[in-house]
Amino acid sequence: MRVTEGGVELEVPGEQTEGIEEAVFYNPRQELNRDLTIATLRAYREREDRAETYLDAMTASGVRGVRAAADGWDVTCCDVDEEAVSLARDNLERNDCEGRVEHRNVNALMHEEPFDVIDLDPYGTPMPFADAAFANCRDLVCVTATDTAPMCGAHFNSGVRSYSAIPRNTDYHAEMGVRTLMSALARSAARFDVGVEPLLTHATSHYVRTYLELTHKATAADAAIDELGHLYHCEDCLYREADPGLIADPLERCPHCDGNRVLAAGPVWLGPVQDSSFIGAVRDEIPYTFDTAPEARELCDTLAAELDTPTHYDQHKLCRNWGLPANAMDEFLADLREAGHAASRAHYGGTTFKTDATVGEIRAATEGNLD
Ligand SMILES: C[S@@+](CC[C@H](N)C(=O)[O-])C[C@H]1O[C@@H](n2cnc3c(N)ncnc32)[C@H](O)[C@@H]1O
Ligand SMILES: [Zn+2]
């Protein structure tokens, strides 16, 4: 089957191809992820012109590598699967792109050779590849994780195993996933005296994607570890609290409703997951020729405006909990701001928002107009 994406043409296995799962080799639902990857690579190279080499670590059809090569990157594609390797070679050739294709376990390749940018896009958790990537990447590690149920605490044991943390299933589950993933990545990088700084992070349709700029200094690794901490969350009233530091001091009772159903999660990443000025630059690198341009640009706008608080709320879930009807989001957010709180929409869903107000303060600021 022939597909066109971002100006390149690719042969990908069609539904009928035996032995190959089409969605795995070429997943059209990840086009937004790939469009944003290309825009991010462009914005990054604008800022750091020394960045030249890009490793598409799990290449499958070769789509990321081909798109990066067409953009002038010095590309290496890698896959353990023989059919993927030959597909990636053909697709590079089809687009007159130069690029090396390696048939091997990418962990071995990463340990042998440094790259400026490494893109991890495995099935499920990226953690088995994180150490090799952070040990050997110079500038930027891009990571996709599709195991949202483990990361957000819905598949608890699997989440604990993959991320060496306690994730908890809350009403902000996608953000729990983001912060569990970021925490494990920061700890993996720190082992190699590498500090991570997230430039752009989004949780979209069952995956999380993050772009981490690296600083090869022990003090930068310490600074990243300082962003870790725990979240305490009341299952009854949805009160939540962030507690910086690696030693947890869980709440026995909820300070808001005095209930005893308080969950503790962590260590999670409590720091910022976006760099809004960089996201502005990424947005400007999304041409309208990209199929997902309207959606990708809107996502960038929301991400750039999103507050840095470590959890978000869902207005509908809060209102349901209070037994009150929800009103329009803009009115709701305006009430919060009028009461002196910071408030923004969040990219996790149409009714999600961020604020520095506590759950009690949110209710006090908004309930007058919830009728
Ligand atoms: C989700 S697919 C990649 C999709 C692709 N990056 C895209 O954007 O369409 C995951 C790929 O990782 C490959 N893979 C799994 N383990 C690997 C390893 N240890 N080294 C290299 N490739 C691996 C699989 O063969 C598969 O092709
Ligand atoms: Zn409570």
Question: What does the model show?
Answer:
It is a single chain. The protein has 2 domains: 2-305, Vaccinia Virus protein VP39 (Rossmann fold), CATH 3.40.50.150; 313-369, N2,N2-dimethylguanosine tRNA methyltransferase, C-terminal domain (Phenylalanyl-tRNA Synthetase, Chain B, domain 1). The chain has helices spanning 22-25, 31-47, 63-70, 82-94, 106-112, 127-136, 148-152, 156-163, 173-190, 218-225, 276-284, 293-305, 315-322, 329-338, 359-366; strands at 2-5, 8-11, 53-56, 74-79, 100-103, 115-120, 137-145, 195-204, 207-215, 228-234, 240-244, 262-269, 313-314, 343-345, 352-355. It is built from 15 helices and 15 strands. The relative contact order is 0.10. Strand 8 (195-204) and strand 9 form a beta hairpin. The model has no long low-confidence stretch (mean pLDDT 96). The longest helix is centred in the middle third of the chain and has 18 residues, at 173-190. The termini are far apart. It is of the alpha/beta class. It is globular and about 65 Å long. 39% of the residues lie in helices and 23% in strands. The strands form 4 sheets. The protein has a 7-stranded mixed beta sheet with strand order 5-4-3-6-7-9-8, sandwiched between helices. Helix 2 (31-47) packs across helix 11 (276-284) and helix 11 (276-284) packs antiparallel against helix 12. Zinc ion binds at residues 234, 236-237, 239, 254, 256-257, 259.
